[in-house]
Design goal:
The chain has 247 residues and is an alpha+beta fold. It has one domain: 2-Layer Sandwich (Beta-Lactamase), CATH 3.30.450. It is built from four helices and ten strands, in the order ααββααββββββββ. The strands form two sheets. An eight-stranded mixed beta sheet has the order 2-1-5-4-3-6-10-9, sandwiched between helices. A two-stranded antiparallel ribbon has the order 7-8. The radius of gyration is 18 Å and the shape is globular.
């Protein structure tokens, strides 16, 4: 491949927000905040599938709180909403996020994919890192690195997800022009091979519709998607299965 053609393809990857695959080396977590929250979660769970909600001490992550959020997954209401959200995250969207539906941020074509990736977190205890691109009404945009970390199901059957959203850059306009449309740019599933098999941990109910019609085919909740060998194309995204993350 000639240098000019290679440069063209690299530029296209950057345009699509897939810069972390430019060198061929996968970078699962680029933001320090993401790494710190993951390390804290990993330490608190202490080899279990997930820690309990009451084990998460705000004072332990005080430097991360302004970007941190907790989502509540209700099987009864079939909703994913903010239970808590940091001040800087609320300011970025120009509103108090507590009680607000998480999928309300996303463009219509990405809502199903976001719900599906979160279902791997609350049903399969799978940490997920993804990049969200937020846009304002005036056309400004910013990429956020986000991570979703599972917590143990609550006694009432609901589930909590711990997460953080860190902007790639602290643009001067963030907090003054609210983000109105968000799209999904990339996804990485982290494999924590040292998680103990609890066996009795209950699975949270799926929030995905029982039947999804896509391109004339019908998918149900009972179907298990095939496991890709390395990567797969989902709409305008490339989804890579994660590598091993140690303690």
């Amino acid at each position: 491949m000639c240098a000019a053609l290679k440069q063209f393809f690299v530029k296209r990857l950057l345009d699509f927000g897939w810069e972390k695959y430019e060198t061929g080396k996968r970078i699962l977590m680029r933001q320090q905040n993401t790494k710190q929250l993951f390390d804290y979660w990993n330490r608190v769970r202490d080899g279990r599938l997930a820690p309990r909600r009451e084990e998460i001490e705000p004072s332990d992550i005080r430097n991360l709180l302004s970007d941190t959020f907790i989502l509540e997954v209700s099987g009864t209401m079939r909703t994913i909403s903010y239970r808590l959200a940091g001040t800087r995250l609320c300011a970025a969207f120009g509103r108090e996020l507590k009680g607000y539906g998480f999928l309300g941020h996303w463009v219509e074509e990405d809502c199903f994919e976001v719900a599906k990736l979160l279902s791997k977190t609350y049903r399969e205890f799978q940490p997920v890192v993804f990049v969200m691109r937020g846009k304002t009404d005036s056309g400004k945009q910013v990429d956020y690195e986000m991570i979703a970390l599972p917590l143990e199901p609550m006694p009432d059957g609901s589930t909590r997800i711990l997460g953080i959203a860190t902007p790639e850059k602290n643009y001067y306009w963030l907090g003054t022009e609210p983000l109105t449309d968000c799209s999904l740019r990339s996804v990485d599933y982290l494999e924590t091979a040292d998680i103990k098999d609890m066996g009795t941990a209950p699975l949270a109910p799926s929030l995905l519709p029982p039947e999804i019609h896509m391109g004339g085919s019908t998918k149900t909740d009972n179907e298990v998607p095939p496991i890709p060998q390395s990567s797969k194309k989902v709409a305008h995204l490339v989804v890579h299965e994660g590598g091993r993350i140690g303690n």
